[in-house]
Amino acid sequence: MERTGVQKLAYILKTLVSITFVCNLLVLPLVPIVSAASSCGFPLAALLHSMGTGGASSDLTYAPGTMLYLVLVSGWGELAPYTLVLTLFLLFCGVCTAAILWQGRRVLSTILKGTPFRMENAVCLQRAALFCFLISGAALVRVIWRICYVQSAAPLLSYNMLFVPLFFLAGLLCLVISALFRQAAEMKAENDLTI
After folding, report:
1. Which of 80, 105, 182, 194 is 20 to 30 A off residue 54, Cα-Cα?
2. CA distances from 185 to 41, 106, 115, 181, 190 (A)
3. Which residues are CB-contacts of 121 (< 8 A; sequence separation ≥ 6)?
4. Which residues of 170-195 are buried (b: 16+ CB within 10 A; e: fewer)?
């Protein structure tokens, strides 16, 4: 059976979501290393350059093992509170983003099968909404913490403040689409019973 235009688009989207999901999982373990390295004065460009050239940089020499040492051996206690909060925030958001992408893959899989109006899709979208709300809440907590930490209103102009309404609205959108999928699944079930 030939795929419809919607199924072709769903296949492309599922491929892109899968690639993003894998990249997310690959980068997630590097977050503490890069965060610790940047807080200790290691420039990110030099860190990435040293990782790509086996540790030899033009003006600075950093071994990737040094950054791993900072996180694993020296322990979290020696990191600045700002770095610790940033690392935990980025790890939490990375895990939530992976969960959102996984739920998206599940919805796209049902579209590829030709059965999009299932209660399973409504549940997946509710879970995605929950993770969006968690990211929004974590961003709000981080903004409030940072305002107290630096005792300034400057964090209100940061990317974290942008995360609050952005992910809150994404969560609301997921809830609306979830309700639509739920309604469509119920109508389909009624139609299947009457025929």
Report:
1. 80
2. 55, 16, 10, 6, 9
3. 106, 107, 110, 178, 181, 185
4. bbeebbebbeebbebbeeeeeeeeee
Within its chain, how far is the Cα of 120 from the centroid? 22
pLDDT at 70 over 80: no
Read off the tokens for 182.
Answer: 């739920």
Look at 85 and 62; give whichever has higher pLDDT: 85
CA angle 56/58/64 to nearest 5° reads 35
Strands, DSSP E only, in 43-183?
A: none
Tens digit of each residue's pLDDT (9 = 90 or more) over 95-138: 999 999 999 999 999 999 988 889 999 999 999 999 999 999 99
* C-beta separation of 95 from 130 below 8 A: no
